[in-house]
């Protein structure tokens, strides 16, 4: 107990010191590298959140440099400090499905029929995020939609590289579907849901289960600003929103490389588009072309990107980007046609906006019914801010209401 207290005091002291240094400019971070577009509602709040996140990262780097802990460990530690206690409207229980930690939220109100079941995969770039970071969101979904929600604590990168997170989410979902009677859930009303990296995992798991005849057919998939491809980081939304918090273009590429390889030595090649051979890019252009994005999403400034070739050495390190389990936007039509009804939420000021728009088109072209909700003043990560006290955003609540 004394050791934990000492560490906490040290963390707080370094955090305050790091924040002061950051504000004073003693630590080199240029806030001009970030941009809050005029269309964002409550821009001051977004700037404050961004400063908090940057301060956290700075303190983590200080602790890493003096040998106390890694930057990633420090950020995860802070994320895991949130505890909400009991909920008067929900039964909440921690279990393991096939050795994967899960947290189950079940409404206390009696139901005249079986519950709806929601498998939820959290965001965080496959590197961050946990059962705790999305606790409020999962509780709200369970309460407001009167559903049994199963939040999955999958393994994180860079310690656990692809396909660890995907396999954990898939195995936990299959376990739930095979033991559905224990949770009072209707097998005809099982939904897979996720935000950001969790949206990627939800799309991949949905595709894998689409052709399974030994399991119940999924009722729907809910993809909240999902990242669905890593072939093109120069789509209109990447160009327009590359410096908009809370997800920069460079960070999006860094995270997917961490998930794939546990490091990011080819970050520059990925960003400029010289990580894939031209023939592969042309093969997927029918699904990835900016021409498939409505013109109204290009008016804020977009320049067509010149196709660049790559070296064999670079391609060898990232060739698995062509696997649909990692980049679901690249799945064949035969798979996409079998997908369940879908809900896709996108945000205007989000680098991942066009991934959602391109997948929406793919689903619709293959006869899948899609409900699309677009937050005109939204930014990446806004849904998780629906209930963040004085840092809440009305758009986040509006988006969550539509998901429910």
UniProtKB/TrEMBL annotation:
Active-site positions on this chain: 196, 350, 380
Entry keyword set: Hydrolase
InterPro entries: AB_hydrolase_3, AB_hydrolase_fold, Arylacetamide_deacetylase, GDXG_lipolytic_enzyme, Lipase_GDXG_HIS_AS
GO terms for cellular component: membrane
Hydrolase found in the keyword field: yes
Alpha/beta hydrolase fold-3 domain sequence ranges: 118-263, 314-383
Region forming the signal peptide: none
Pfam annotation, one family: Abhydrolase_3
GO molecular function, one term: carboxylic ester hydrolase activity
Annotated PANTHER family: AB HYDROLASE SUPERFAMILY PROTEIN C4A8.06C, ALPHA_BETA HYDROLASE FOLD-3 DOMAIN-CONTAINING PROTEIN
Entry similarity comment: Belongs to the 'GDXG' lipolytic enzyme family.
Full protein name: ADCL4 protein
Protein's gene: Aadacl4_1
